[in-house]
Write a structure and sequence with these properties.
Layout lengths: L9 H15 L7 H8 L18 H18 L4 E6 L4 E6 L7 H15 L3 H9 L17 E6 L2 E9 L4 H14 L2
Antiparallel strand pairs: 1-2, 1-4, 3-4
Length: 183
């Protein structure tokens, strides 16, 4: 028995064309404006029902981890580094030898916070320390310095969280890691 499928609507055809193009062209090479244009409705000027959004790849996460480990080693810091995608989901996590046991969980929380806020986790810490403890009830965030968004072409594609070097040093390492990807 043969199963036949109905003809694809124009939106599906556009999706398949984008998918085919991405198989031969890295996502970073496709301009964001072209991706957004492809996501618009074919029915004229009506807005699209979906959006195309770039996110961090495993290769990008590995670049960030290596840059973080290099920066920490130069300063003699034992750290954990977590890299998450734009939705705050874990892509890569490493704990250097000698980093304390809580560091991986804290690094992941800082990275998730930076991705979801699309801002450094220090901003969230500053809200709490600035007399707004109600922000502590926000689910799934870690209000500690050391989480930094990874920005590519003006869009947050992920975030890095670092724990173990303490406060501003965690941010310094996270910034080095984010810069390695966001170039």
């Amino acid at each position: 028995m043969r199963i036949s499928f109905p003809a694809l609507p124009a939106a599906h055809a556009t999706f398949l064309a984008l998918l085919a193009a991405s198989a031969t062209t890295p996502a970073s090479a496709a301009p964001l404006a072209a991706q957004e244009q492809a996501a618009t409705s074919t029915a004229g000027s009506a807005p699209a029902a979906t959006l195309v959004r770039r996110t961090l790849s495993l290769a990008g996460a590995r670049q960030a981890v290596e840059a973080a480990k290099d920066e920490a080693a130069r300063n003699g810091w034992r750290i954990a580094v977590a890299v998450v995608d734009a939705a705050g989901e874990l892509v890569a996590l490493e704990k250097t030898d000698g980093a304390i046991g809580i560091s991986p969980a804290v690094a992941q929380g800082k990275a998730r916070t930076a991705a979801l806020l699309q801002a450094p986790s220090k901003e969230f810490e500053d809200f709490v320390n600035g007399g707004k403890p109600s922000f502590l009830s926000t689910p799934g965030v870690t209000p500690l310095e050391g989480g930094v968004p990874i920005v590519v072409d003006g869009q947050v594609v992920g975030a890095v969280g670092v724990s173990g070097a303490h406060g501003a040093n965690d941010s310094r390492v996270a910034c080095a890691a984010a810069a390695a990807v966001g170039r």
